[in-house]
């Protein structure tokens, strides 16, 4: 069975409706769409530390809504707009995941939203297997 989260009422910058699910669960897996440092449809002010913290927290909030926890995170993808943000992002990442980090890829890319970072996550929890 496939369950989609956040289809109705999801808004991006400027209040536009987002054309994708915030997350999709299937057979114990949860795929959380890329999250930017957005609150109430607007990118937060602040540097890479504040924006990284918010982007990761947005993923965690969606996971919690779906019944998953940090211990269920298998993999994270990170997109930074500048390689110079890498060390600061790592400090934020470590503050969330400490001694039990997920696997991860980090790359530099232009983002379609005017922010410094975007992250997505993949989770697995066998209690949700069909």
TrEMBL record:
Pfam families tied to this protein: Ribonuc_L-PSP
Cellular component annotations (GO), alphabetically ordered: cytosol
SUPFAM superfamilies, per the entry: YjgF-like
CDD domains: YjgF_YER057c_UK114_family (cd00448)
UniProt GO MF annotations: deaminase activity
Taxonomy, superkingdom: Bacteria
Family: Belongs to the RutC family.
Name under which the protein is recorded: RidA family protein
Species name: Tenebrionibacter intestinalis
């Amino acid at each position: 069975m496939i369950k989609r989260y956040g289809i109705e009422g999801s808004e991006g910058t400027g209040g536009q409706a987002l054309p994708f699910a915030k997350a999709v669960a299937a057979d114990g897996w949860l795929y959380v769409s890329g999250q930017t440092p957005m609150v109430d449809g607007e990118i937060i002010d602040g540097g890479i530390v504040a924006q990284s913290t918010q982007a990761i927290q947005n993923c965690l909030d969606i996971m919690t809504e779906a019944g998953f926890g940090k211990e269920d995170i298998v993999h994270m993808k990170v997109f930074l707009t500048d390689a110079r943000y890498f060390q600061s992002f790592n400090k934020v990442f470590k503050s969330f995941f400490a001694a039990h980090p997920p696997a991860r890829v980090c790359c530099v890319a232009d983002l379609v939203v005017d922010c410094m970072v975007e992250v997505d996550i993949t989770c697995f929890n066998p209690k949700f297997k069909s």
